[in-house]
Structure formats: C-alpha cells, structure tokens
Write a structure and sequence with these properties.
It contains 13 helices and 21 strands. With 490 residues, the protein is α/β, with parallel strands linked by helices. It folds into two domains: 2-10 and 364-485, Immunoglobulin-like; 15-360, Glycosidases (TIM Barrel, Alpha-Beta Barrel), CATH 3.20.20.80. Helix 3 packs parallel to helix 5, helix 10 runs parallel beside helix 11 (350-360) and helix 12 packs across helix 13 (447-457). The longest helix has 19 residues, at 129-147. The two termini are 30 Å apart.
Length: 490
C-alpha cells in the first residue's frame, strides 16, 4: 500500500512547457493533406504551438537550384520559396508557428555528396561560404517581407540538426561552429530581433564548447537547443564523442536508469547557463520499431518525464506527432513501433492520450508527499480554477522490476464524501493497439476498423467514491490514472 498526502499550502507555477513544440517528418510531407489533418488535430486537442521538421532546404523542396545553358555553362542560382510559403501559410492558418531547422545543404551548394535518409538530404558543408550566406539572407528577407517582422521574430531559427552525428553532418565541431557563425550573421543582417540558436546536438552534446565559442567570438546566440533519449545514457555518461564511443564499445548498451531524462536535463541546464534551453527532439526511446511507442508504457514514461522536468526547460518538443514519417521509409502496418503520437491512419496511441490529459491540467502545482518515495508510483496534483486534478502514474524502465500497487490519496478533509471522475490508460483502457491485435493485427485496416480503433483509443470517464476524504485505487504496471474532483476548492 502506498499513501499520498497533498500539501495544499505549498504551490508553484506549472508551465505547460511541453506544448511549446512538436516534431514531425521532413518538410516536404507537410504539403500532404493527411499530415495537415493530423497536425491540426494535435494543435487543437493537445495544444502544441510550434512544429519542427528536417529537410527545409532539401532538393525536393526546390528552394535553391543552379541552372545551366545548353552548353553546360552555369547560369547562376535560382531561389524558390514557394513550397516553404505553402507550409508556413498553413501553419499560420491553424494558429501554429514554425520552429525552423535550417538544413540540409542544397546539392548545388554542397561540398560533398553524403545523403541523409531516403529523401536525400545532403549532410555536407557548403562549397562556398558566400553562396550559403546569400541563401540564408534571401530566405530571411523573404520571410520578413511576406509575413512581417513582428510575426517572424516570434519564430525560432535553429542551425542544422545533430551536427555531432556523422549521419547528419560530415564536418567537424569546428566546421559546425563556423557554419553557425556565418548563418546567424546572415540572419541578423535582416533583423537583430530574430531568434537564432543551436547546436541542436544529440546526446546533450557540445553545449559548453558552443557557448564558449559564441561568447569568445561575439557570435550572437539567443537560445541553446539539444536532443535526448533515455537510450542515450551510456554515451552521455561517458562524455565521449559518438565516434570514439563506438570504437571502444561494440554498439550502445541500451540499459538506463529510471528518471534518466531528468538527470540529463539538470546537467544540461547548468551547462546552458542563463540561455533559454529547448529540447527540440525527445521521445521515450530512440529505437524505431521496438514497440515501446505504441502501448501504455510510453504514456507512463511521458507522464513521469513531464513532471520531472517541470521548471527545468523553456520548451520540449516530442518527436513526433505522427507515424507519417520517412526517415528510413514509410513502414508498413498500423502499429509498427513508430515515433508518432498517432498512427499513419491518425489512430491515437496511449501516449497521445497522456498529452491530452496534461493539456487539460491547470497551471498551479501542489506538492505531494509519499509513504514510499522509492516506489515506481508517483502522483502529480494540480489546481485548475476550483477543481483539483490528479495524475497517478506507475513507470519503470524496460528490464527493471515493476509491480501493481494499492494506493490511497489523502485529501486532508475527513468530512469529504462525494464522487470524482477517473480516466485510465493501461493495457485495457485507451489502448487501441490491443484492439488491433484482437482484430488479428491486420497490415491494412478498412474504414470500419479505423473507426473501431479510434473508439478503442478514447479515454472513458468513470465515477469513483471519495470516502472520508480519501480515494483508493489499484494501479497496474505502466499505467496512468487521471482524477478530477470538481469544485474541490469551493
């Protein structure tokens, strides 16, 4: 038995920092109707404000092209921002904004031929600083002319993606710092009010070195961005460069401790000094296809992570809002372990529902005391107007012990006898994957099956009795319970 007691006298602001941004597949997919339908849904239902994607300058976006005459002589570079305009126009139409990741390198400007993913982003430095600077200058001027400075200065410009990984960037740390410098200087020529940052690294990497470079060389830096996943832990603790780690270790040990993302964030916050800190990519696992993303495990870990990182970051961008995702290829099947909050067909996973619950929470957090502080069960208490909202979650990492528990929540009011409303996420509640398995795990689903799976994913409200100011629950492993007590503070 675990007992929780709420301290109603000690509160602090509970900012919805996780709603700041959400990740997506590469930019070209934002021209698709189904992508747009699902993005609008997560904005409307989950509250996400910005969206971030790779491949803004990829050749498929037709942003930068070199033309030639019939004799093969270069006729110069042509810029075309029509596809980007189309995407941003849509974002503004649905009251979202872009978090602009500047990359990859257009092939006509590239110094090498390295390709990222099937959609072919070029991962090399520019062959000419001046050509890259001109692209960035013309792009930024175009945005300000089209959308106005007051709008564009509310956006974010992030230079590249994970330059510490050879997959994404063929250059060195020194090369990236140079690329950042010439990029930010080009943007600031248009307006010093535009927000630019980086290094957008994986594994919480390069942050002290990057800040030192910017400060020592008077290079503008408006925010720090990085990425993390719990499976980053062995590399993160080693302090090694990823190439050096792989030389010394045959692959990556995927074991990691409970609460590791908070440990990473605490250290990174110190390194970021007083700069705003944005995690522009994170998820409960970096292993695509491991199945963790599709079931209630992800919901329980997200609940713990969002509570853990309260007050530590300025923005947190979950990767990604949909399984419309083509970094390897569009994987077949309905529940195939994709990163998304929704399947390719828009069916909401349990992790979607925990974001839905957190979106509904108020902005005043109450402190909670537990009789078993070392257990895998924790409780979040929030005040919203006159209502008390509670989120109970039971999470541990793969391979580590986890049990079901009986829980009592003491509301410090022995005279309180009324009903509260409860919504559950576990193997048999708000879990469309189980219903899909019950259907025989079909690779393709028809319209009626999609409708059935949407219904299976819904949160169902139940009534539970409060007796003498206490609520009793049985919580299963890797599950979440959301409790609302209306008019509690009246």
């Amino acid at each position: 038995m675990i007992n929780f007691e709420i301290n109603f006298k000690e509160t602090h602001e509970f900012k919805h920092y996780w709603q700041m941004c959400v990740g997506s597949s590469h930019a070209y997919t934002a021209l698709r109707a189904d992508y747009r339908e699902q993005l609008k849904k997560v904005h409307d239902e989950l509250g996400f404000k910005y969206v971030r994607f790779h491949g803004l300058f990829d050749d498929e976006m037709s942003v930068c092209t070199e033309t030639f005459d019939f004799d093969g002589n270069s006729q110069g570079i042509i810029y075309n921002f029509t596809n980007i305009d189309n995407i941003i126009d849509f974002l503004l139409e649905i009251n979202m904004k872009p978090f602009l990741e500047l990359g990859f390198m257009p092939n006509c400007l590239a110094s090498g031929k390295g390709q990222v993913f099937p959609y072919g982003g070029n991962n090399s430095m520019p062959k000419s600083d001046s050509q890259w600077q001109e692209l960035i200058l013309q792009f930024t001027k175009h945005l300000v002319e089209r959308y106005g400075l007051s709008e564009v200065k509310s956006w974010f410009f992030e230079v590249w993606n994970e330059p510490n990984l050879p997959l994404f960037f063929s250059g060195s740390q020194e090369d990236y710092f140079h690329l950042y410098e010439i990029t930010v200087n080009s943007i600031k020529k248009v307006s010093p009010e535009l927000k630019v940052g980086g290094p957008a690294t994986s594994f919480n990497s390069w942050i002290p070195e990057f800040i030192e470079f910017c400060e020592n060389n008077s290079v503008p830096l408006d925010f720090v961005s990085t990425h993390h996943y719990p499976t980053d832990d062995p590399l993160w603790k080693s302090g090694m460069d990823i190439e050096e780690y792989f030389k010394q270790n045959q692959g990556i040990d995927t074991k990691y401790p409970r609460g590791v993302l908070k440990k990473m964030t605490l250290e990174t916050k110190k390194q970021a000094k007083n700069y705003p800190l944005y995690y522009t990519e994170w998820n409960v696992s970096a292993e695509l296809g491991d199945g963790i993303h599709d079931g209630p495990y992800a919901a329980a870990m997200v609940a713990k992570t969002l509570v853990d990182n309260d007050g530590l970051v300025d923005g947190y961008s979950y990767w990604t809002f949909s399984d419309i995702f083509e970094e390897q290829y569009q994987k077949p099947g309905v529940f195939h372990g994709g990163f998304g909050l929704q399947t390719y067909q828009g069916i909401e996973k349990p992790v979607y529902r925990i974001f839905e619950i957190f979106h509904e929470l108020g902005n005043e957090r109450l402190m909670v005391e537990s009789s078993a502080s070392d257990s895998t069960v924790e409780l979040l208490a929030v005040k919203k107007d006159s209502n008390l909202q509670l989120v109970l979650y039971n999470h541990n990492v793969p391979g580590e012990p986890i049990s079901e528990y009986n829980v009592t929540i003491d509301l410090n009011n022995a005279n309180l006898n009324k009903e509260c409303f409860v919504k559950i996420i576990d193997e048999t509640h708000a879990n469309a994957k189980k219903s899909w398995i019950d259907l025989g795990s079909p690779e393709y689903v028809n319209f009626n099956q999609i409708k059935e799976l949407h219904a299976a994913s819904e949160l169902q409200s139940e009534k539970v009795k409060i007796t003498n100011g206490k609520i009793n629950f049985h919580i299963k492993s890797h599950s979440c319970i959301y409790i609302t007590i209306n008019n509690f503070f009246n």
